Amino acid sequence: MQMRSLRPGFKNRFFVTAAVTALLVSGFDPAFASNRELTSDELNLPAILLPNGTKVPDSLNDPDLWIECIDRMRGSRLPEEFREVARFFKEEGERLGVFWPGVLVQSMHETNYYKYGGDARKESWNVGGVGITKDVATTTHQNFGSLRRGVRAMLEHVAIYADPDRMHTVIIEQNKRDRDIGERFLADRTQQFFGDIRDKNESFRKMAKKMKDPNRPVRFNDLGEFRTEEDLNKLRGRGDGKIDPDSFDRYKRTRASIGGATLVYAGDPFYGAKWYLKWKQASSCVQSKYPRKVVLPDFRGEPLKKSKEWLEEHRLTVKLNPGVPAPTENKSGTIQEQAPERGTQVKPGDTVTLTVHSKYVSLVSTVVVPDLKGISYPDAKKKLEAMGLSIVWRDGGRPNPPALANTFQMQDPPAGTQVSKGETVYVWFYGAHTPTREERVAAADCSQYLKSRAYWDNNAGKPLCGCFDGLQWNLNATQCVTADVYAKEFCDREKPGSIAEGTTYDGKPNCVCSQGRVPTADNRSCADKPIGPPLEKCNDLLAKIRQFMDRYRRDPRNNSVLKGAAQTSANQAQRLGCDQNQINQALSDHQDNIQKPFTINGVIHPSTVEMGGDRQDLFVTWGGNPSFPVKMIYFRKGPCPGPFNCTNMTKQFNTATNPLHFPGALWCSNIQKEGNYYFDYAVVLEDALGNRTQEAPAGFTCKSTRNPLCEQYARRAVSMNQENLNRNCRYTGARWTSDYQGHYNWCIKAPRSTVDSETRAREGELKNCQVKQKDCSHCKVYEDWLNLKKNAEACWYHGNRLPSICQLDPECIRWNKECNRVKKQLGDCQAKCQDR
Questions:
Q1: What span, in angstroms and rounded, lies between the C-alpha atoms of 271 and 155?
Q2: DSSP states of 2-55 as a string?
Q3: CA atoms lying within 13 Å on the CB side of residue 308
Q4: Segment 160-188, tens digit of pLDDT
Q5: What is the pLDDT of residue 262?
Q6: Does pTM surpass 0.85?
Q7: Who's near 365: CB < 8 A, 6+ residues apart?
Q8: Would you tell me how many other CB atoms lie within 10 Å of the CB of residue 292?
Q9: What is the distance between the alpha carbons of residues 7 and 274, in angstroms, rounded to a whole number?
């Protein structure tokens, strides 16, 4: 495997393994951070991770100073897209507890001060050559998408060598939150080679113990190891010019597994020394620019512009406060006071407050603003203009209380302020009082309408008087009365002498004659029942009734005409006061009391219907003597709720059955949305003569609830399909899917028996599949061999495609062929021991 340098013109060659070893030091914990800065000895050879209780010195912690030094060291201004690189290193480094200035110097070293020129491209935002090799230099694994992500990847990559276990967890958890390719690359690479990194860490701890310094942290200069040419020759061969493939290939495999190609130039054994020289050069540059404390001069009387320039030059924050008018015209805009006082030592970032003289005002042309409280706007205007001032009216809003309408509220400048003539005084006056709706309703007078109350009518846009608490307007709309009083007034006017019994179909009182009284001939009033009806007249009417009924018995085809004629004669007899028993006897033959009205006595139906469930039946009991066939009309009265489509239904009954049965009249479609929806329906009956019954309410509620039976069915269906996939039964179709909601929706609409049979059918098919499978346990020997070789890393890749990392390794190629052969034997064995 070959590495490629980032610097232009650097010759590719086999690189020497970097002695990149890691000591498992205690992780950085912000809770134990203190103000102690790293000492000069600690900064000479700094550790990668900040020791607990320490921080980056202020002299090295300013990103702006680092950018200035990068500009000077590269000989030109850093491009705009990289001007934030130092700030990103600082923010991300503090989050990880990494000594970020050291990683920044490493980034400057590996990108040639962000001039690039090697395999890495600046548009990939790869600031440290992370993952750059000859074969994968331009893949998306090295494109981090943004400068901050590239900085974060390099910091994590360096930190993993200082504390493998902790940083491995930090990187994996961090990248779970950032799922793009660039963020995921380092975590995947760390996961793949983490075992090798930890083995190297163990070797370094043993070396640290031999150095009698077991707590020694990993330093930046440890990232490269010095190797002489003799050492390189020993790695490449036995000294006789022949290559020792085993030794050199083991070296290459170890070097690749720890990711060292992203840390060190290819074949550069002097990386640690080169980093150290650049570290000393860059840190000295930044520390030389770090400002020291300065002594504040006396700014009083100095121009504001000159004072601000001095403060900004020394990196101090300026805060300005307005002062009093200048004593002379040439003092306008000069410094009146300062804080801190002159002679105070301050450091960059401190705030200096300057109080500045306002414009000079001549006393000759000034006046004192009067108090305008208690006077009107015309008077205030006249008073101010007489003093040489102008006035501007401002709306003070709605007055509260109303007594403040059109009165003074406030003024600016306030009374007693000395201002120049010609200045403007702003005066706020309350507006006119506009009563609110509540106030207008409370003020409305409804006393002329007894027992009425005022309310706000949106259509009229004003208060109106209305009846509440169960009361209603009387006939003349002059007072509020109860329903009984209104019904009595109505019947007294519409049908004198009658009384109210219920209501008619249109909601009006039903006026009937009381006992002992009968309607007049025009049915517009009630009169006393006559005493002793004329016997001869009654006998004639009874004879007519019997005659019509005899003809009805002989020719029932004309039943409607004959029944109507008989009923007309019976009504005349009733008005004359004839004996009711004789009238009933004459009508009783073959007509079942024709005088009884056709009515609905009751409606039976469920009040709640489940969405998507079975249709529910409607039963209607009736009374009277209807002429069949009878038609039942089931219709909607109120609006159709929610997302449903409401339908009116009609069913005809040819034979007389009581009750009338309308199967499946009530049903709710499944809209897959939980909730309760009320359907305002009613039912009415109509016979063959066109006689209609009264409307009877038959509303119901559609209720959407989760069906436990269907939930259990859907879970079982998904589980059985997973078993189908695990056994390789190869069943397909609507029955064999993992769509939980699809199974549930089907169950809601299907009958219970169909649901149970569907479950039994799946169980039978799985049982047949289990019978067809044969024992393949003897094939496990091939599977165990593959797992053993994979765990021992003797064969990393045994797929169809040989990765580029293995193309130059004879041992890897040999193991790849062997693994493919065993894998084919495993497949043949499994195919032979199965029927399909």
A1: 18
A2: ----SSTTPPP-PPPPP------PPPP-GGG--SEEPPHHHHHS-BSBPPTTEE
A3: 10
A4: 777 787 777 777 776 666 654 444 445 45
A5: 30
A6: no
A7: 420, 421
A8: 9
A9: 14
